[in-house]
Amino acid sequence: MARTQPIRMGMIGGGEGAFIGAVHRHAAGLDGDYKLVCGAFSRDAKNNSNTADALNIDSQRTYSDWQLMLDAEAKLPPTERMEVVVIVTPNHLHVPISLAAIKAGFHVFCEKPAGVDLGEVLDLQDALLSSDRLYGLAHTYLGYPMVWQARHMIEQGMLGSIRKVFVEYPQGWLSANEESHNKQAEWRTDPALAGGSGCMGDIGTHAFGLVEFVLNDNVSALCGELHTHVEGRRLDDDGAALIKMESGATGVLIASQVCAGEENALKIRVYGDKGGLEWQQMEPNSVVYRPLGAPYQVFRAGLGQPGLCNEAIDRCRTPGGHPEGYLEAMANLYKNFAVAIRNGDSGKAKGVPGIHSGVRGLAFISAMLASSDSDMKWETISNVGLQN
Amino acid sequence: MARTQPIRMGMIGGGEGAFIGAVHRHAAGLDGDYKLVCGAFSRDAKNNSNTADALNIDSQRTYSDWQLMLDAEAKLPPTERMEVVVIVTPNHLHVPISLAAIKAGFHVFCEKPAGVDLGEVLDLQDALLSSDRLYGLAHTYLGYPMVWQARHMIEQGMLGSIRKVFVEYPQGWLSANEESHNKQAEWRTDPALAGGSGCMGDIGTHAFGLVEFVLNDNVSALCGELHTHVEGRRLDDDGAALIKMESGATGVLIASQVCAGEENALKIRVYGDKGGLEWQQMEPNSVVYRPLGAPYQVFRAGLGQPGLCNEAIDRCRTPGGHPEGYLEAMANLYKNFAVAIRNGDSGKAKGVPGIHSGVRGLAFISAMLASSDSDMKWETISNVGLQN
Amino acid sequence: MARTQPIRMGMIGGGEGAFIGAVHRHAAGLDGDYKLVCGAFSRDAKNNSNTADALNIDSQRTYSDWQLMLDAEAKLPPTERMEVVVIVTPNHLHVPISLAAIKAGFHVFCEKPAGVDLGEVLDLQDALLSSDRLYGLAHTYLGYPMVWQARHMIEQGMLGSIRKVFVEYPQGWLSANEESHNKQAEWRTDPALAGGSGCMGDIGTHAFGLVEFVLNDNVSALCGELHTHVEGRRLDDDGAALIKMESGATGVLIASQVCAGEENALKIRVYGDKGGLEWQQMEPNSVVYRPLGAPYQVFRAGLGQPGLCNEAIDRCRTPGGHPEGYLEAMANLYKNFAVAIRNGDSGKAKGVPGIHSGVRGLAFISAMLASSDSDMKWETISNVGLQN
Amino acid sequence: MARTQPIRMGMIGGGEGAFIGAVHRHAAGLDGDYKLVCGAFSRDAKNNSNTADALNIDSQRTYSDWQLMLDAEAKLPPTERMEVVVIVTPNHLHVPISLAAIKAGFHVFCEKPAGVDLGEVLDLQDALLSSDRLYGLAHTYLGYPMVWQARHMIEQGMLGSIRKVFVEYPQGWLSANEESHNKQAEWRTDPALAGGSGCMGDIGTHAFGLVEFVLNDNVSALCGELHTHVEGRRLDDDGAALIKMESGATGVLIASQVCAGEENALKIRVYGDKGGLEWQQMEPNSVVYRPLGAPYQVFRAGLGQPGLCNEAIDRCRTPGGHPEGYLEAMANLYKNFAVAIRNGDSGKAKGVPGIHSGVRGLAFISAMLASSDSDMKWETISNVGLQN
Q: Total structural domains in chain D?
């Protein structure tokens, strides 16, 4: 058996004061598959070098600029240079960096949304179709074992024919004017950095992606509205939509960042003619299954737990009752991305959301903006994106 | 102190095999304020007399027909004849009986919805305005102490200015073709008996009424859709709407009877700029309060429990931790209706939903039907009904 | 079919300011089986007459004294006099009144504990054995449908051979010196009125009775200790014991009234070699069932709910999701007591705890006092009481 | 700012098929503070080399034996050799390896319990007192932020004077004869490898340690019993005890591995004269706080969450609502251990359980064995171990 070398990883963004960069580093570190070798963490030189020092990055591989990093790393010997670049910048840079990185020969693991505009994301999709590089999108919630279990139970017909889906994602952290003093809030409410939607780009895409993944079905159309509640805020912070699935099921999608007191309460419920199920992110290790005509059951995550599908088991590290959480969910994406890199796969990494999710997410954002502008016209999105 | 005589009550509907009639009798019996003295329980003579016998009703005051009952009772001496009539028939008889009963001098306590058609309910409203008789509508959920507590906390400004309201009422009992063998399901899905809407008439009105009560605000407009999922079913069994409140808040209303495995999961969440709250019918003795910037709190029903408003305390019979439920909620309506009768109040009984709730409920049903027919046009309903 | 006449009921105790008397009246009223016809509600004349007036009791049948009441009622014609007497006085009067009532020919429904002393309760048991009168004991929690469901599931072998039982009953209402100002607390902490134990007599007996009922097995021995936490308090307010069952299972019993912030959190968990189950009074409509090697299941109370035994169904009035609670649990005792009265049963009323529960409860209290005094000696109680 | 080098870590035990070794590696990897450089993972040569390869360990630093490893590593240059050794073998080797490692100059991070016998653990304590090496003990649950929050709230007097503590640790995984086919179960039920107690050594020590930590108080005496339920099992699999704290509080400790269907349900409840609190491991991000006379509150883990103490905040990596779990709890021990190593601290690592916890754990096990053998004699343990 040959020694398993860690994959060399670089990071763009994620300097001191950022949130999601550290999350990616924790997640990549959890299973020991990656080694951070270089970074362009911040355009602020002091922040950049402090971050690099804290992360034990050689100053020669600490870059002031992402273009410099891609260029310099590409010139290093193949056994030294980074293999995958993690993009944790504000949204507007996601596509430009992704395109350049792929062109320079690197795999890309990118925070969501894939970009700020459907057009640019479709361009990225084109570029990926003609490349052998892997592209992963951090739809973190799709790394949870019990999200896979929910999808599996629906695929197995345990709910029968699907009729209804309700997804909701209430947060409360933007209830007040956070953008005046909180860096995270600042860029997420700035159209130049975040894109055309605030709440839908930031969390609506998670809710949308969860629906399409769990049902293994596309949203065909939606009719919704967006709201902005805090004075001076430049993007929506709240919205809801009625949705239709290609299979004929219908439902409701809610995403809001002004639900005062809510933390991060993403939840999905699905109902078919034979039963229903429910999963919620804040108690992620359970799927409640409600078969018609029998007591309801709770399937639980964990090694050795009864009734789990292989995809769920593969995403657990501990026996039942030892809760795993958000970092483990993202680590599952990294773990599967590492498998694909080591396998030499091209295109999509199995078990990791890819550009298709990115395209669908932007189609969702566009449709929400259009429907809200038109006072509740149904917007069709079934035709956007390749088949998954 | 004079002896408190029980109020003489008659019942129309509620024979063997019916559900809600027994609920009313339990609720009316709980506090000892009423004595059932007469009834027209069923058009089936055998059922009618069996029901009467089981309830210890004199055969002379067991009537084969509701008109006969109103006529005969009106002719009895004032100290003997029934004082209030409880209407627990299918919906299409609610208004005709109510009108006749009021005319004959009886107070009316009626199951919801108030009728099958907005027009007839407005007529009933007119009749009540020129009568001194009391009219109560069994919006049972408005009898729960913690629903009053939620309303109180909003009135006190504990949530600040209201931005969002989400109400949902998923049930699963009509997931299959129940109407083929279940009497309850049969009439509730028959347009001639239930009215123009199935799910919205049966449970959507509860969700709608809960929103207007808890927020002490009217829904100004809604945009929604209705669905029918079971083959051969003649009325909607599911629907959802985006809603706007007169105050400017917005939200979502969901009501469905095909959420397989769900029991009776009515739930409301409200968010303002200072906090949020949540109440759910299946754990009715708690209000979760989420103040912005402090740990969330749980207010609990019960005599001696901290933080409760008077309206909540008045609706509790036991100390905290001795759960009260659905029958006690309806008993609270009966208790308050008894107070009003004994006080000689006219028009509205304090603490009991009245004709205004009935009118609003029908306006809601009409708007849901119209919006769904028009493919998501906003329907305005702020102008329907007198002010509460 | 003959008309079902309500059973004529009298009450001793339960005047204004008492708690449990009103609970009994609500419970007896819920199903319409009883009519309160007489009472000796309080030794305070004003309280007595006010209570009687509020309850519409004829002043001629409002008695200043319980002996007077028993004598006077016994002299009334059989179709007029009370049939059953409800005893809701402090504990020290339970046995004297019960004995006198039985002797005078009345059925007895008594608050628990059955008495203050094992000896007097054994005397009462003897008296009942030679009488045809019915005796019911208000172990209210044994009226809950899901307590019967739990017992049924164990009887059916769904847990296999029972190994462990944990029962706990934490309350917090005596955390401070309540007896200085709260009537309820006053007599419950007075040895002359409450008996030799405070907490064990008041709530420990409930926990103990629940174990014996759900397991359908006797506690054979216990080893425990009692504590008193509030200065000046004259009886224990807290205690715990290790217990052994006759079947060989072992467990823990906790009862405390100084668990600050707890309401009335009675809970039982049972484990066998094939599975476990859990029921808690504050969410009384669920039994959690944990079969070994399968996802856990939740059985839910309600008409039409899957998997329920007949004894559970018979104790439900509403469909699933319409919560029933504490008053309904006690009403179930009253309903079954009414059935037994109407059937002319003698001795034990089916489905209602009787003198056997009373004897066992006092044996438990005695053993707790003895074990605590002896610094943790095992006290055997398997030999106390007739077989159930 | 100087670059932060990872700490060089070696591991003894943790080969393929073991559970806890991987947990330690995940935890050590999460924050990037450690680099695994050597190991003696298994006495099975194939397992050892496979594990090493999978972990990218140089074959020259993959040792067939722990003594060899300590010797060889000690001879490497200071900048190369391992700095800390992680011990994840069966219990009987914990002390021998710890003693040798300290003597050889390595810091030790050891799975719990510290050893199999109080005597050997006291010897280890002596050795540590005369060494400058750090010793950490993996009482993982003491790494949870909300366990620190609970301790803090008690220290701040938010509960007043403590009266009661209930701790319980039900598991179900040893309900059947697991040791016949499950390696984990095999050694944990073998007295030669696990020590004199099965359940108390494995999980009772966690429950005990949690009580002493959260209350910041010692158990002074206990009176308990042990049971073995599965035929042929050689050690206890279940037990319970009444406990007394030095402060005067009393309580109950339950630990069992035959609670069929339970996962890993460690839970603690504490009550004082001003309030109570509750924490449970399976929902580790909440502390329920029940102040006397006010609605109960829920304190929630997460960056930016209200009301948290510094010790809790320091143990969070994500904002509220992004659940962290068991691996993060252990990672918090590793993170604090890294801080102490880098600081050059000697003796105890701040925020990490040390030899004192080890000594107390063994004193607990000894007392449980002695009390159970003596049929419920109180065993005093307040005098065992140095002050924390």
A: 2
